[in-house]
Every structure is written in C-alpha cells, then in structure tokens.
C-alpha cells in the first residue's frame, strides 16, 4: 500500500483561517492535476453573451461536471441527480434553459471550460490562482473540514492529535490548517488512493481531516464504526467557474445564485442532498468565528455589527473574497462569512 508519511509541526499563522481549504475525493478546493491541454475551438470558447444569449441561440447551458461524484452529481438510469445538478438546473431555469452535462473528471473541469467544451463548471471547485483563464462566482456552498475518528476514540479535538497519525489528501492548505489547529508535531499520512475510510476502519489511521459533506455521505456504509468528532474546523467554499473573458455569464450566474440564496433554495438543496441543516446565527469554528448573513443584510451592515464600524466592510470582504466572489454586493441570506480577527 503506497503512501507518504510526513511529520508536521506548528505552521505559520493561517491566513483568513481556512481560506480555500478542500480535501474531498478528489481533493476539493485543491488545484486540479493537469490532465493535458485541450485544443481550444475559438468559436466554442468565445464569450457566451450570458444566459439570455444562450436562450436566444436555442441551445442548452453546457455544464462541466464529474458524473461519479455523489451526492453532488451522479448519473442514474434516468439521467442525473444530486446537489450540484439541481443547482445547475436552477441557474439555467432563470433563463428558461436546459442543462447538458459535459462529463469530466475533477482534474479535467478547468480545461473543459477554458477550451470551450463547457460554458461553466460546477464540481466542488474552490477559487485558486493556480487555475488559468477562469473567473469565480459567489460561493454556492460554504462548508467545513471535519475531524473523523474511530467510534470510541479518546481523540475529540484537533490538539488531541499530537503525535498521532492523521489521514488527509495532498492539499497544502488543509495540511496548514491541521498543523495550526494541532499546534504540535503529528504524522500526516497522504495516501495515493482514496480508500481513507477503509484504512481508518482497519486501524491504519488515528484520525482523518475531510470535507464534512462528503464525510457524512461516505461514512454511511461503515455504520457506527466511525464518528465525526468535530464538524466545525473552518469555513471553505465551492464556486462556479466560468471563462475569465465571459463577464456577462459570470454576472448572470452571480445574480441567479444570489436570488436562489435569498429564496432559501440553496439551503433547501443543502438539506436535501447533503444532510446539512442551515444555520441561522453566528457560531464558532476551531479556526475562528463565523456569522450567517440575514435577509437583506450587506457587508457594511454586518461589519457595523460584528466589527464596530460599517467602514470595516473591506476587511470583512478581504477575509471572505473566495466566498463572496468578485462583487462585494453579491451576498445572500444564509451565506456563512468568516469574522476577521
């Protein structure tokens, strides 16, 4: 069984306590492993003109997604289903469009968009400067990494992992978050395959750091053998990716997501597909405090309440740029924001 073991001590202070930190299978929020460049068709890769232009052209919204990524998106005998597929349909419906899934693995998603094979990608991707040619929407899901242990384990919190063997994906930000929260030396086991839960059941790992939505889904097959010891380590985010030269489509997607958030549909989809109940008030994570946006609230209103001055909205925005996206006015009810220290 090939794996890498690395001994970690306390890392440098974590910027924005958990910025763009993902670790799902494949690593959510980590830069995709290049799958080789796809030939760019200039006609296909030209700006779409937005959702209305696609409707006028009588063609579907082409969405790059992994068809084997339940509960986010999966192919069934009758079509597709899952949280992200329902989200794609809801975005398309704002312009009377149908959705056509462009099947791609996680590592192929960025190239599927930049090459013109797809108009956008929805596939558990977090904003990263490592992706060339892409722009990022407001977040459609803010979630946390979680600490998973065998049932009955005395390990309850991240500092308990001192000297322990911790499984995680090869995501440098996830490793940094873990190092900061453990605050001492631990042994990180980074496996080259994805059988983490099986390895824990076999006693090869003392604990795991993993995306909460995926953890809850994948743990079902192990009954009561595994336990989520802490489901609030940080806040990280999934966003829609579009081509950088297609600002109208990005604006339309942002408008659709804000509307879906204000209507409560994002929270409904999260509850239905991911088993997450929407939080309504502020709460603490291991990495810092989080506030939930109320209906009609803006960044300046939240800054006034949480930071003591409406003028500090810029600090709030900088701590949540990956969540809010390029437009600081696009926030919606139910969105989770980090409160900067």
Describe the protein.
With 341 residues, the chain is an alpha+beta fold. The protein has a domain at 3-14 and 144-230: D-Maltodextrin-Binding Protein, domain 2 (3-Layer(aba) Sandwich). The chain is built from eleven helices and 17 strands. A six-stranded mixed sheet has the order 1-11-10-12-9-13. Helix 4 (172-182) links the parallel strand 10 (165-167) and strand 11 (186-191). Helix 9 (299-306) crosses helix 10 (313-319). The protein is globular and about 60 Å long.
Keywords:
341 residues; D-Maltodextrin-Binding Protein, domain 2; 11 helices; 27% helix; disordered N terminus
Q: Helix and strand succession?
A: EHEEEEHEHEEEEHEHEHEEHHEEHHHE
Helix content: 25-40%
Task: Outline the low-pLDDT stretches.
Answer: 1-34
On the 0 to 100 scale, the average pLDDT is 86
Identify the CATH class of one domain.
Alpha Beta
Placed side by side, the strands forming the largest sheet appear as 1-11-10-12-9-13
Q: What's the N-to-C terminus distance?
A: 42 Å
Cα shape:
globular
Largest sheet features:
6 strands, mixed
| Helical/strand content category | alpha+beta
Gyration radius, in Å: 20 Å
CATH homologous superfamily placement of one domain: Periplasmic binding protein-like II
The fold-level CATH name of one domain is D-Maltodextrin-Binding Protein, domain 2
Beta-strand percentage range = 15-25%
Number of strands: 17
Number of helices: 11
The CATH architecture of one domain can be named as 3-Layer(aba) Sandwich
